[in-house]
Design brief:
Shape of chain A: globular
Order of helices and strands of chain A: EHHEEEEHE
Keywords (chains A, B): Autocatalytic cleavage, Decarboxylase, Lyase, Polyamine biosynthesis, Pyruvate, S-adenosyl-L-methionine, Schiff base, Spermidine biosynthesis, Zymogen
Pfam families (chains A, B): AdoMet_dc (PF02675)
Low-confidence stretches of chain A: none
CATH architecture of chain A: 4-Layer Sandwich
Strand order of the largest sheet of chain A: 2-3-4-5-1-6
Helix content of chain A: 25-40%
Cofactor (chains A, B): pyruvate
Protein name (chains A, B): S-adenosylmethionine decarboxylase
Number of domains of chain A: 1
Radius of gyration of chain A: 17 Å
Oligomer: homodimer
GO molecular function (chains A, B): adenosylmethionine decarboxylase activity
Chain lengths: 132, 132
C-alpha cells in the first residue's frame, strides 16, 4: 500500500471568491481536476456551509478515488483553503497524477502563501526473494 | 484554520477480516466513531471494491465532518489500513475529539504495527492587538 499524500494549506487565495463559497463550482473543479489527471473518481460528497442569513459561508468536501482520495476545505472569509491529495500505488505509480491535481488546484486558487507537506505512506511491498 | 491532522498506516490488523472487506460494516464503524467522539457528520461516501468473481476486495471511504474529514482505505489481502482524521479548530479545539476517533479505530483494527504522522495545519489566527 505504498503511496504519496500531498498536503497543502493555502493562504490568501486570489481566485474568484465564488470558487471558495459555492459548492457546485468547487465540486466541479475538484472532480474534473482528478479526471483530467487520469485518476478514477468513484464518488464525492461536498457540503455547503451557510451563515444564519442563508448566504454561502464556505465548502467542505471529498472525492473518493480508486487510487485513494482528495479532500478540500475552504474559509472564504480569510481566502484560505486546505487541500489533501492522497494516491496509493497499488497497480501503478500514481504519484505524478497526484502531483498534477495538486499543482492544478493550487494554480487555480493562486494563494499568496502555500505551506505544503509531502508524506510517503506505507511500505513498498517487495516481491519475495526466490530461495529464501 | 488551525487544525490537527492525524495520519496512520496500519499493518497486520488482527480485527475480524469482515471489517476490512464489507462496506457497510466499515462505514458504520467510522460514522459511529465520529459521532461518539462528538464530531458532526455531514455526509459520507464509501465504495466497495470487488474481485472479478464478485467477492469483496476492500473498501475505501470518507466521512465529511463539520470539523473537516475522516478518510480510510483497506487492503484486506494484507490486513492493512490507512487512516486520516483531520479536524480544524474554528469555533473550538477539536484536537481531543480527533485523537479519540483515531485511538478508537486503531483499537478496533488492532494492528501489529502502526506508522503514524501528526501534522499541525494552518496558522493559529491571533486576535488583533488593540492600538496596533
Amino acid at each position: 500500500m505504498n503511496g504519496l499524500h500531498l498536503i497543502a494549506d493555502l493562504y490568501g487565495c486570489r481566485c474568484d471568491l465564488a470558487l471558495l463559497k459555492e459548492r457546485t463550482q468547487l465540486q466541479t473543479l475538484c472532480v474534473d481536476a482528478c479526471k483530467e489527471a487520469g485518476l478514477t473518481v468513484l464518488g464525492d460528497y461536498f457540503f455547503q456551509f451557510t451563515y444564519d442569513n442563508g448566504e454561502p459561508a464556505g465548502v467542505t468536501g471529498t472525492v473518493v478515488l480508486a487510487e485513494s482520495h482528495l479532500a478540500i476545505h475552504t474559509w472564504p472569509e480569510d481566502r484560505n483553503v486546505t487541500l489533501d491529495v492522497y494516491v496509493c500505488n497499488y497497480s501503478r505509480d500514481n504519484s505524478a497524477l497526484a502531483k498534477a491535481v495538486y499543482d492544478r488546484l493550487i494554480e487555480v486558487f493562486a494563494p499568496v502563501e502555500t505551506v505544503g507537506h509531502r508524506v510517503v505512506r506505507g511500505h513498498i511491498e517487495m516481491p519475495p526473494t526466490e530461495g529464501v
